[in-house]
Amino acid sequence: MTFSFRIDRILGDRPFAEVSDPVLAVDDEGRGLLAVAGVHEFGSTAPVGVYGTDDLACRALVHARYPVHAMAFHPRLPLLAVGTGHYDGGYFFEGELLLLDLETGSATSLIEHELGRQVLGLEWLSEQELRVLMAPPDDWQDKDAWSEGHVAVVHRPDWRVVPPRSITGYDLAGPRVAAPRTDRREHARQTVSGLSTNWDPRRNIRAVEELCDGRIVATLDRVRLECWLPSGRRQWAVRDDDGGGRDIVIAADERSAWVGLVRPPWEERAQAVVRLALQDGAQLDHLTPCSSVSLVRCADGLPALAPAGRNGERSRLRIRRGSRIYFLGTASMKGGQQPERGEVWVAAADLGFIPVAGRPREPGGAGGNQLFPYSWKPGETHFAGPGVETADGDLIHAGTVYHGHGLQPGGSFVVRRAVASGEPTWVFRTDRKATDLDHDTETVYVTYDDGEIVGLDLRDGSVRWRRHLAVAGVPVVATALTVAEPGRLLIGTADGRILDCSTVQEVPMLCTHAASLTDQSSPVMLSIEGTG
Fold this sequence. Notes:
Blueprint: E1 2-11, E2 22-28, E3 33-38, E4 46-52, E5 58-64, E6 68-73, E7 79-84, E8 86-87, E9 93-94, E10 97-101, E11 107-109, E12 119-124, E13 129-134, E14 148-155, E15 176-178, H1 185-195, E16 205-210, E17 216-228, E18 234-250, E19 256-261, E20 273-277, E21 283-287, E22 293-297, E23 303-307, E24 318-320, E25 324-330, E26 344-350, E27 369-373, E28 382-383, E29 386-389, E30 395-401, E31 412-417, E32 424-430, E33 434-439, E34 443-448, E35 452-457, E36 463-468, E37 470-471, E38 474-475, E39 478-485, E40 488-493, E41 498-505, H2 511-516, E42 526-529
Parallel strand pairs: 24-29
Antiparallel strand pairs: 1-41, 1-42, 2-3, 3-4, 4-5, 6-7, 7-10, 8-9, 10-11, 12-13, 13-14, 14-15, 16-17, 17-18, 18-19, 19-20, 20-21, 22-23, 25-26, 26-27, 28-30, 29-30, 30-31, 31-32, 33-34, 34-35, 35-36, 37-38, 39-40, 40-41
């Protein structure tokens, strides 16, 4: 069976979209190239994009594990050296020296040591010699470790063939020198502004919904809510420098929307939930729950606050369109038997009465009914993820399996479960964490943190199709997903764009007919071979 997937429209597109908020920019005037590094986010990566200064097209993109401090173009070869790193919070300065091949787009990590080194400066002295400025390996009994470092000159006859992890401690040995930590953010912003005034440091679309009049609203980093007109122009946006919006529930009359706000994990302030007018974004109401919650849309279209636990995203089970309010909780006595100590169960609270003034429902003091253990496999601890309730009352949700060394192969899952028993109807496993999911009458759509989107058969979980998302040939990662109508998806991305997409099952036709129907002005369509 063959399916087609295409991006019909892009909202929030702009120059330097791939790096969002620049912190470092280095140019190569001779080749007309500009390397731009973006902000490193907590628990995520730092993007590095290489652009042509004539057309501002992205020529290469890599995501670094650590914040980027230095970049240098090779004087002749199509290579970019990238220095990254940070302090681990207790002892070590760790990081990487990356070598990005501008022709293939592949990046190689060069330092042999497991923790690497925090690289603060890079300079090509010749075609064979690279000067590397590094922080000390650690700050043990070293009060000057934050202002000094070591410098070394690494020699390689041909940098195009340097193997991974081949630069040793001996190569990086060098004298102690001053190593100031310079903030180059303002210079980077001035550089990209000089090439285009249309760049915008937007990133991380967290939720996206469509209104009946064709407008699209979204939450994202540092923006509580924004609204886009059918013409593709942004009508308004409500800024929020504290963190931005997360969940959205549109009111039945589409005159307002409830928005759950994000607070940084290190802040003690309570998370807020606000009601905003969809005409102009004006705030109409405000709630401050006593604990962390997920704002969800129930099956009747009304908002509810689902307890989100105390373990961040790991305990945040967000079930959309539920006939009850679902959440995770530590089990107590159940059916006369005591569950295992600390065992996590799925619980549900009835929707009950409708609060006054259209405010979100909240579970009552009893905390809901325990349904079944969240982990269906004995001995496995499962972390929460996004989910939906199907029309026949089953739950489909994503999650990950806890392992002391991080996510393991096959440790990410999407499962369909009968609410009555919690038993899986089907399970789909993969190696990457799901970022969002939704479904229509036939397909469950799942997006992953490596940029893949997968279409699963709603009935049996088999793969109908899968592909990696790309815009203009450059990979993008989906962070939000909503089915606007059967076969039509709204996808928010980590770089702050909103993709209006469609997917349909292709009907075989004769080549001559296909050629006669070709429209050069229509969006490019990718055919995807699926199973089923």
